[in-house]
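Consider the tokenized backbone below.
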């Protein structure tokens, strides 16, 4: 084909009449908008794990026998010396004590010796020991110190705290991707497919499990259409934690409030706890350093289970609590106590990832239908989380940005 005469300078727009002849200046490094923000699953990968052998996993939770009881009805009697009297406890607390137990009123310091128990009503000897008698108020808390058995006494009635059965269900998570065989054959900037997309899907699959760990819902259905087969969903931390939930209710978090929260949760479980917090919660913590609270908030990055963390130093226990910023939670809504206001205090010794046997995360290839001119792959995993002793964990929510 004959060329066309052109007068003047040759520019990049006129190269041989076809600007596509000039190679593109193309950076083959893809700029990912959202980085891998799956710190919890990263930590889980560095901890021991056990495989599950059923689609429902069970565990047994136990505690020591209770040692405190609460007064239900006030008793205004103030005995000048040891004498018999009755104390009415809160419903069910009568099972915690038995004759010959020594109780201490932790408000008045008076000690009582139990002589008889009738449901939740105790007959007691008052002013045992040196403490003077005092009126008993409703809601007084009594410490069950120990039993004092007389010589030659009969075998006491055995008591034990019933164990609790915990459970969760496995969830099948699939992350697929597919290309036509033509798309696979051609050359792509940044690398050939489907390998390039496989890298992105691996991150997306891991993010699904990260969301499940915190926000998963526990359920089981025996027959779900259209296959009419069972379907389980895995419960996350939000499904289990009930006892210790600090609701700021539209206020900023103060160091005192947070320290009180830690004092409650650290009563239970291990000291190996990590706080996973939204940027808004950590913004509340950062404000403390600007008002003289730098001794509590230590924004010095360190490595815990392969994750960069800051730390809060508990005033009650002196423990250094790692703080992991969940950057992606900054996209969540903050109005109405949305998930953008959340933080989870997780006892890492009481959380375990449980993949089903032979169903741990794997890359499955050649998933396309027979005869179709495409190529499909997927990541598939069936697993669950064992989240035991919910009192060892806690939730913060409902805060606002500091001013």
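A designed sequence for it:
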């Amino acid at each position: 084909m004959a060329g066309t005469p052109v007068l003047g300078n040759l520019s990049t727009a006129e190269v041989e009449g076809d600007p596509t002849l000039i190679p593109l200046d193309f950076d083959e490094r893809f700029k990912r908008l959202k980085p891998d923000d799956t710190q919890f699953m990263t930590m889980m990968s560095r901890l021991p794990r056990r495989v599950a052998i059923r689609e429902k996993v069970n565990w047994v939770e136990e505690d020591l026998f209770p040692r405190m009881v609460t007064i239900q009805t006030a008793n205004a009697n103030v005995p000048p010396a040891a004498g018999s009297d009755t104390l009415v406890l809160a419903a069910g607390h009568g099972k915690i004590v038995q004759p010959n137990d020594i109780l201490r009123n932790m408000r008045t310091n008076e000690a009582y010796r139990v002589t008889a128990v009738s449901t939740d009503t105790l007959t007691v000897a008052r002013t045992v020991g040196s403490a003077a008698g005092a009126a008993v108020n409703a809601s007084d808390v009594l410490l069950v110190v120990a039993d004092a058995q007389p010589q030659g006494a009969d075998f006491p009635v055995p008591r034990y705290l019933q164990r609790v059965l915990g459970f969760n269900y496995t969830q099948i998570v699939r992350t697929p991707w597919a290309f036509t065989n033509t798309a696979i054959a051609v050359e792509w900037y940044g690398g050939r497919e489907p390998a390039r997309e496989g890298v992105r899907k691996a991150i997306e699959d891991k993010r699904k499990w990260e969301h499940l760990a915190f926000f998963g819902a526990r359920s089981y259905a025996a027959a779900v259409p259209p296959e009419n087969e069972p379907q389980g969903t895995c419960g996350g931390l939000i499904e289990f934690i009930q006892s210790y939930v600090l609701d700021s209710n539209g206020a900023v978090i103060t160091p005192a409030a947070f320290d009180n929260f830690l004092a409650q949760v650290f009563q239970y479980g291990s000291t190996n706890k990590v706080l996973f917090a939204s940027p808004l919660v950590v913004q509340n913590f950062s404000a403390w350093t600007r008002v003289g609270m730098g001794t509590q908030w230590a924004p010095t990055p360190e490595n815990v289970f392969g994750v960069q963390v800051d730390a809060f130093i508990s005033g009650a226990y002196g423990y250094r609590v790692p703080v992991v910023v969940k950057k992606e939670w900054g996209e969540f809504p903050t109005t109405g106590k949305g998930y953008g206001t959340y933080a989870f205090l997780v006892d890492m010794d009481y959380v375990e990832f449980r993949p089903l046997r032979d169903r741990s995360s794997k890359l499955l290839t050649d998933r396309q239908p027979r005869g179709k001119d495409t190529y499909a792959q997927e990541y598939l995993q069936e697993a669950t989380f064992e989240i035991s002793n919910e009192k060892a964990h806690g939730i913060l929510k409902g805060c606002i940005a500091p001013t």
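The chain has two domains: 31-64+165-403, 68-147.
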